[in-house]
Amino acid sequence: MSNILTNRRAFLATGAIAIPSIALAKGIAIKPDAWVHGPFEDNMKQANDHLKTMRGLMRDLTRPGARDDAAFLANQITILMAQCVEHAKDVHIPEASKAKYADNQEQFTTDLRIKMTATIAAANSLSRALLMGNDEEANNLYNSLREERKEAHDEFKVDD
Predict the structure, then answer these.
(1) Is 10 exposed, middle or buried (0-12, 13-18, 19+ CB in 10 A)?
(2) Longest dimension (CA), the chain
(3) Run of H or E including 85
(4) The predicted structure's pLDDT at residue 99
């Protein structure tokens, strides 16, 4: 029985890594009205919405389907953030960061992409931890993602 469980966990972990790659390779359709604010902002908003939805799921992972739903949402965040990396060049330096970057848009874009790449890795690790049943690691990664979101929101909130 333990061999079956090990094989199932390995299969699920492989899927957690492969699903975002497959989805990125095929591309994701964006609603026609999604271009109003630009793809970067729309993808970030969707990722934020998924993170908020996960809050209830993460509180009780023993509920039927909670773990799978949370892992799916973490994969969606991975995909959305990867798409944001592509559109990072369209993001203007927020007021809170102008002193740091002194109108060096290229450096800002590079730093933004580095932060988003770290978030992609964390979201993918979160999905893997959820599918493997490692609740402690999953909760730590989820809290880390929420903290990163809060820091990013604080940096950009002045631009609204």
Answers:
(1) exposed
(2) 61
(3) helix 66-87
(4) 86
